[in-house]
Fold this sequence. Notes:
By secondary structure, chain A is mainly alpha-helical. Chain A has helices at residues 3-14, 20-32, 34-51, 62-77, 81-105, 127-137. By secondary structure, chain B is an all-alpha fold. Chain A: Residues 3-37 form the Putative zinc-finger domain.
Amino acid sequence: MKCTKVTRRLPALLAGELRAEEVLELKRHLTLCPGCRAARAALEADSRLLGELAAPEPGPWFTGRVMAEVRAASRRSGRPAWVRALAGTGLAVLVAAGVWAGTTFGGDLFGGGTAADPLAVNNEPSLTEYLELAAGSGR
Amino acid sequence: MTGPADDRELVRAAQAGGLSAFEELVRRHQRPLFGYLYRMCGNPAEAEELAQQAFVRAWGGIGRFRGEASFKTWLYRIATNLCINRATRRKPTVELPESLPAPEASEPAESYARARRVAAVRAALEQLPADQRAALVLVEYEEMSYREAARALRRSVRAVDSLIFRARQNLRRLLEPARRKGIV
C-alpha cells in the first residue's frame, strides 16, 4: 500500500470506520513506515487539541423558553378542526355578503366608492385617479 | 416496572400532540445539540438561539418525521441547515490566541497557556468551511459514525469521508502558525 493511500485513510482509521482487513493492511504499513506513523501521531495530537474545546451548558431557562415557543407555535397552527372550519365558513359568509351588498347597493355602500374602482373609500381619489395623477405628474 | 421511554415512543406521543413528550425530547437532546452548535458557530448566545429555533422547527415538522433516521440525526439535520444558512450571511468573528489579554499575576501559567490553546482551536475550527466543520464536529465531538453524520448532513458516506479528510488537512494547516509560536 502506498503512503498517499495510507495517509488518505488515516482519519477513517482513527474514527474506527474501516473494515478489519483494511485496518490490518494499514497497521502493517504503519509498522514499517516512519513517515506515516508521524502523520498518524499528528492526527492524534490534533484530536487531543480538539478535545480541549469544551462546550458550555445551555442557560438554566433554556427548556422553559423552548417550550414557551413551542406552545405559542401550537396555538398559532394547532387550533381544533372545528375552529378552523368555523373560521373558514365565517370568511365565506362575509365574502358572499359583500358580493350581495355590492351588487344590491352599488358603490355607495362603503362611502364614496364607485363601481369602477371598489378600492376607493371616502373622499380619497380612486386607484384609477391615483394612477392618472401619477402619470400626469411625471409628464 | 417500565424504564424511561425511548426516543421513538416520545416521538410517537409528540406526533399525537403530546407536549410533555416533546419536552422530554428537548431535555434529552438540548445539551449535546447546544454543544454541537456552540462548536459550529463559536458563540454561546448564537448557539442557544439556533438550538431553540431547531427545536421549534422540529415541533413544527414532527408530523412529517417518518423515523427513517433517529430523532437525534433528524434534529441535527435541522440545526445544521439553520447554522449553515446563518454562516453564509455573516462573516466569521475569529478570536485569535494572540488577542487574549496578558495573564493576571494570580493566574497560573498553565491555565493561561490552556486558554491560548483553546482560542487557537476555536479560531481554526471557525475558519473551516461550514460543511467540513459540521462533519468534523459531528464525528469528533458528537461521536457519530460516518453513516450517521451522512444522514445529518444529507450527504453520502463517501462525501463525509472526504469532508473529514479535508477538514483534518485544513485544521493542521490552520493550526500551523500557533504551532510555530508554541501556543499549541
